[in-house]
Specification:
The chain folds into two domains: about 180 residues, Nucleotidyltransferase, domain 5 (2-Layer Sandwich); about 50 residues, no CATH class. Helix content is about 40%, strand content about 10%. The protein is built from eleven helices and five strands. The longest helix has 23 residues. The two termini are about 25 Å apart. The mean pLDDT is about 95.
Length: about 250
């Protein structure tokens, strides 16, 4: 979807950065083809922050609203350095995070234990966890992109957090930080849009996978078109099987 919507807008390079529970990015080089796309999970986005806030408030708060706790707290260099030793960050793309298995309760338990040893305040913990997200994103750009993007397009829940946006701009000063909504597709409708784009590709018999991104052997058609006899006559789908891989 990112390639279809963003790759041919102009000659700028873009990183489409999703900040959901896990951070995942699609890098679109300047004037890229589908074969040039780079994409992978960067590590946690909101997962650690949300779980940490819920634990610290005994469930009274489920997220750091507008990044207020992070803005109040200071970042602990010692704790941040420890978090950045997580083995996922050293794995080479293509790669996906296992979510809670990598950055769930066990990870938060260790973060709280380390914070206690450093006598950190609750807000300092949240601030450091927030900076961990920023470093995971930025360091992956620096390691695995051929060059830093002209623009970073944010989507997902973390895009609503002004402290995350501010810190990402500070960490990547040469990149313009923009929101998915600015391009005519609301970030909150991103997943629904993705399914619509993928369905349209299938209807046109276009393979919609990128082997370089997924690690698959080859491109393939996605999904299945199933029509009941009652509605089948309304559709005129003609697929030349000689043109369909597999």
């Amino acid at each position: 979807m990112d390639f279809v919507l963003f790759a041919r807008l102009d000659d700028r390079s873009r990183a489409i950065q999703n900040l959901g529970c896990i951070a995942n990015v699609t890098f679109l080089p300047r004037n890229c083809t589908a074969g040039d796309v780079i994409s992978f999970d960067c590590g946690p986005a909101n997962m650690v922050i949300d779980r940490l806030v819920a634990r610290l408030t005994e469930g009274r708060e489920l997220l750091d609203e507008d990044g207020r706790r992070a803005a109040r707290g200071g970042v602990s260099p010692e704790l941040l350095a420890e978090l950045l030793t997580h083995p996922y960050l050293k794995r080479e793309p293509p790669k996906t995070s296992r979510g809670p298995e990598d950055f769930g309760e066990e990870f938060v338990d260790q973060l709280i234990e380390s914070s206690a040893a450093l006598s950190l305040s609750d807000d300092a913990m949240v601030s450091t966890a927030t900076q961990f997200t920023i470093e995971c994103v930025a360091s992956h750009y620096e390691q695995y992109f051929p060059y830093l993007p002209d623009e970073v397009v944010l989507t997902g829940g973390g895009a609503h957090n002004p402290e995350i946006r501010r810190r990402l701009q500070e960490r990547l000063p040469k990149c313009a930080i923009r929101l998915h909504d600015e391009f005519g597709v609301p970030g909150d409708a991103r997943e629904a849009t993705a399914w619509a784009v993928l369905a349209d590709e299938t209807l046109h018999a276009n393979p919609a996978t990128l082997p370089k991104v997924t690690g698959a052997v080859g491109a393939a058609l996605l999904g299945k078109i199933v029509l009941t006899s009652r509605f089948a006559h309304r559709f005129h789908l003609t697929v030349d099987r000689a043109e369909v891989p597999g």
